[in-house]
Amino acid sequence: MIPVSIDKKVREWKEAGLLDEATGQRLVDYEHERLAVRDKREHNPPILVIIGSILLALSLFSFVAANWQAIPDLLKVAIFLVIMVGMYVAAEQVKTRAQRFVTLFLVLGIVFFVATMIVIFTTYNLSSQLPLLFWLMFGVAVLHRLIYQHPIFTFIAALGGFMAITNSFQGIGLTLILLGLIITWVWFHYTNHELDRIFAWFGFYGLLIIIGQYANYEGRFWPLWALVIMHVLFLIYRERAQWNYLYLFVAAILSIGYLINATEGWLSQRPPSVIEATVLSAALVGIYLLHRRPELMWVSLLAVIPFSLFNDSGILLAVLLEVVALGYLVWQDHQRKPIVLAFIYFLIVQMTIYFIYVWDRLDISLFFLIGALIVFGLSLALWWRNRTRGDVRT
């Protein structure tokens, strides 16, 4: 072979004194590398072979689809299982030759895993166990994220977790709840990327909501209780202070949700308990007293919700949220922090109150005029404050 003759020639030149040891070794290494690249190019399949392979695959899929009902059940599962394994084998084969295709084959492996599970569920009449399918998809995506460290698997895991949780609201058993908690904790604990932990945090919160349904909780305060329980993560992962804003975001969503539902007779079917409201309010305040973090102070203000819900009209809750939204906006400005999200929350509270209490009572033009005046007045006040302290911005 040519590489052997190259080695022989270099050895002869060394013996003749024409080359030193280092130069000869560089020549051998260069020639071997050049030949390896040439062999790799020569082994690329011709375009006709690629087109023929695609047509063959399409014809096989067409044949399987046309005779699907006549194919035995085990063979159906085996077909998709073989394709799934083939995707992972292909990913390993192209790892050294075409790195850019590895992720594609891995994603296709997940797709065919889900397809295999669907075939199993439909073949053996397991449609009632649909949440299990999504939890398996979630677990496989998390496993891929931990092994291959590609960000695409973060979003696949987030999609799988979302579908698993939303399809579990109808009611699932304790086994699936434990499975979901284990997978979510593994994702939360063993990943080093913040986006993964954020999605896992929301996964924990969704699972807590499901646990409330599993326990047949009859009250209206479980979303708030779930937020209180989520603070256990702060006791374990205290160094991750940036997650304060996750609690703040969920608290804002919950406040708007309670404001919308409190005026629609939502509480008339299940009136709140004074004892539970007292304990919950104390727990929300205790969160801030325990952690002493400024952002959690605003989360603790959710303690006003349990007692304000005793007013069926929702007016008390609307007034309290109005004050909290304005106070948070002013506080953010006073701390010289970004006020965009605080301003958006204030606007959402305003619009919610208008739609609930004002929409049917005032002319539509007056409705928008009042809203515009409030926004303009608040913006002018904040601008004037910034101007007086020397950091004015448009």
Give a quick rundown of the structure.
The chain is an all-alpha fold and 394 residues long. Helices cover 75% and strands 0% of the residues. The protein has a domain at 220-361.
Structure description:
The chain is mostly helical and 394 residues long. It has a domain at 220-361. Helices cover 75% and strands 0% of the residues. It has 18 helices and no strands. Helix 12 runs parallel beside helix 14 and helix 13 (274-291) runs antiparallel to helix 14 (294-300). The radius of gyration is 31 Å and the shape is extended. The mean pLDDT is 78.
Describe the secondary-structure layout.
Elements: H1 2-15, H2 21-42, H3 47-66, H4 73-93, H5 102-123, H6 130-148, H7 152-166, H8 174-190, H9 194-214, H10 222-230, H11 232-236, H12 244-261, H13 274-291, H14 294-300, H15 304-308, H16 315-334, H17 340-358, H18 364-388
